[in-house]
Amino acid sequence: FQLSYFTYANGVRDYQAYDAAVDRFNNTQAPLRKLYVTCNQNREKLTDTQSRQIFQLIDALTEGINEETDRMARAALLLQRAVAYAEAQNYADAIADLDDYLSIDTLSAIGRWERAVCQAMLNSYDASRGQNVSMKSAQVEGDIAEAIKVAPKNAYLFYNRGNLYAAAKNYSRAIDDYSRAIEIDPNFAEAYLNRGLARCYSGKTTDGLHDFSKAGELGLYNAYAISKQLSRKK
């Protein structure tokens, strides 16, 4: 889960991803375009129209950043441009803007959250090219840990960290973080789905199947197909 200029639309009805800090940013900073929380998993590519909108937004934000003399106002513009760069999959420039933003607003949970996501995405690309990303992976985990200190009720931070642990096959810690995300947001369908996978991979198949059932009830219908597939292997 990450910041976005597009609304959450993963097929789960009656659920809108929400974070109070993002809402507060929208209400106090009057961004050029409203920020949302969305899931990058299975997101469709931007349409041509959306791509044009994002590049126009980057141009407008760049002009504003170059002209803005107020430190905090400039920081808000940097965060917005970072999200726009991330939408365009320009993660290196997004991280550079987030570095500048966090040098000004050092306690911003959403800044560390977004930087962790961008770095994780960049790490995935670098790893696919054979690069060693262990140090940068530690930076991602560090950003999420710092964000959790500031925003301990943000379910998406625990979910994202759970994904990091699951990718490293540390299923016990992944399950703990998915469980924490579910405690905070009992309707968090993706957390049930991923906890189900982590439980199955760690040999707790029965518990995992219960999680798939819950994810399906909440609207992630592909959970049922996963459950049937794994049930055959039980």
Quick take:
Helix 7 (155-167) packs parallel to helix 9. This protein has helices at residues 20-29, 48-67, 71-87, 91-104, 109-128, 134-150, 155-167, 171-184, 189-201, 205-217, 222-233; strands at residues 2-4, 36-38.
The secondary-structure class comes to: mainly alpha
List low-confidence stretches.
Answer: none
Largest sheet: 2 strands, antiparallel
Percent in helix: 55-70%
* CATH class identity of the domain at 2-152: Mainly Alpha
Give the C-alpha Rg. Answer: 18 Å
* Strand neighbour order, sheet with most strands: 1-2
CATH topology of the domain at 2-152: Serine Threonine Protein Phosphatase 5, Tetratricopeptide repeat
Secondary structure: number of strands: 2
The N- to C-terminal Cα distance equals 31 Å
Superfamily at the CATH H level of the domain at 2-152?
Tetratricopeptide repeat domain
Indicate the mean pLDDT. 93
Count of DSSP H/I helices: 11
Shape: globular
Structure write-up:
This protein is an all-alpha fold and 234 residues long. The protein is 70% helix and 3% strand. A two-stranded antiparallel sheet has the order 1-2. Helix 3 (71-87) runs antiparallel to helix 4 (91-104), helix 6 (134-150) runs antiparallel to helix 7 (155-167) and helix 8 (171-184) runs antiparallel to helix 9. The chain is globular. It starts with a strand and ends with a helix.
